[in-house]
Amino acid sequence: MIDLESLGGDPYPTLHRLRKEEPVARATSQGGLMWLVTRRDDVLEILRDPETFSTDHSSSPIRDTFGAQMLSAEGESQRRYKSACAPPFNRRAVEVEAAPVVRARIDEMLDAIERRLPNESVDLRATLAGPLALAVVADIIGMPEEMHDRIREWYDAFAAALATHDPHSAARKEGRNSAAAFRSAVAELIAPISEEAQGSLISHLVSLAPPARLSDEELLSNTLIVLFGGIETTEAAMLNALWALLTHDDARSAVVRDDQALDAAIEESLRWEPAVQTCTRYATRAVTVRGVPIGEGDIVQCMIGAANRDPAHFADPDRFDITRANAGDHVSFGFGRHYCLGAALARLEMRLAIRSLLERWPHVRLHVERDSSPRGHEFRKPRALWVTR
């Protein structure tokens, strides 16, 4: 039986073996039992069938930590939550309204990095990817700058809580406590919407009229998941893309020369090293997947990293190839009705940050004495990305 936590290093050899020999495999995670599904076709079939494989379950770590929100609801509730939160994240809003803010944040951070790089190595997670993802999503939500340090503390607690399926663990308790602290802080922002928060997600949600208007509890829970997703997915995807480029000189050189190559590299990095490795579902009835009986209530983990490297769909899938024609077929932002709300924003932040970094320092390189490889069985990224010039 596979231990899910054992996939935190290099999961891909094990995922290849499972996909070939045991595509629906029994696994354990901190004492809990679940099924790992590793073939792309099966993953897509499960994700497009919320009637049989639901996110809405009392055991869901996301629901336990954040409450009822778009990632732990189905049906009309899920559509209502996602529709209410969508306007700041549609493609036009991202390209027209968010892009100038993102560029300004990047320039400010790169200026600070430039003062250090000639004489020392720099961790791009601590100085660019993490602060950028946090600042941008906080701006969009309408949370002031002075709250950023508290947001980072809450975020760390959320990540630990969502990585465990034990509802009685210390990590889950701390996650619930941090969510309560977040709710209290945001509740103070709801009533007196300041001029600075006009145009924010909070002001938009407060201004909605019934029946679109969310209750205060629904507003807080959905803002919570937007905050966490906006930091985790974007920070990790940016770091994984940079790591891929800095370990593949030909790809990095192509990206320096060509914007189209950058867009292709972003899609290939999302496929090759996805930031989120699993999509969790709960069987609503007894069902059979590829001849394996799955019981009602069983946890089913759709293994995104395995689906993205399925040789039945991606030729030579372990190779990082920015000329790959079907790289965009990855499922790193999910699939179906739970497709990531912030996908367009994440791609924008990745594109602007990587382009600006390589324009300033086209020969930036990884620090040879520090390990910057991605790690994590659930949320996957470098713990630090050390670079030098």
Instruction: Give the low-confidence spans.
Output: none
User: What structural class is derived from the secondary structure elements?
Assistant: alpha+beta
Q: What is the averaged pLDDT score?
A: 92
Shape: globular
Spell the H/E element sequence: EHEEHEHHHEHHHHHHHEEEEHHEEEE
Number of helices: 14
**What is the tally of beta strands?**
13
The helical percent reads 40-55%
Please report the distance between the alpha carbons of the first and last residues.
45 Å
| Main sheet summary | 6 strands, mixed
As a whole number of angstroms, the C-alpha radius of gyration is 20 Å
The strand order across the widest sheet is: 1-2-3-9-6-4
Percentage of residues in DSSP E strands: 5-15%
Explained architecture:
The chain is an alpha+beta fold and 389 residues long. Helices cover 50% and strands 11% of the residues. It is built from 14 helices and 13 strands. The mean pLDDT is 92.
Tags for this model:
alpha+beta, 6-stranded mixed β-sheet, 389 residues
Summarize it.
The chain has 389 residues and is α+β, with helices and mostly antiparallel strands.
Fold blueprint:
Blueprint: E1 2-3, H1 12-21, E2 24-29, E3 32-37, H2 40-47, E4 53-54, H3 61-66, H4 75-85, H5 91-114, E5 122-123, H6 124-141, H7 148-162, H8 170-190, H9 201-207, H10 216-246, H11 249-257, H12 259-272, E6 278-283, E7 287-289, E8 292-294, E9 299-303, H13 304-307, H14 343-360, E10 365-366, E11 374-375, E12 381-382, E13 386-388
Parallel strand pairs: 1-2, 3-9
Antiparallel strand pairs: 2-3, 4-6, 5-13, 6-9, 7-8, 10-13, 11-12
Helix pairs in contact: 5-6, 5-14, 6-10, 7-8, 8-10, 10-12, 10-14, 11-12, 12-14
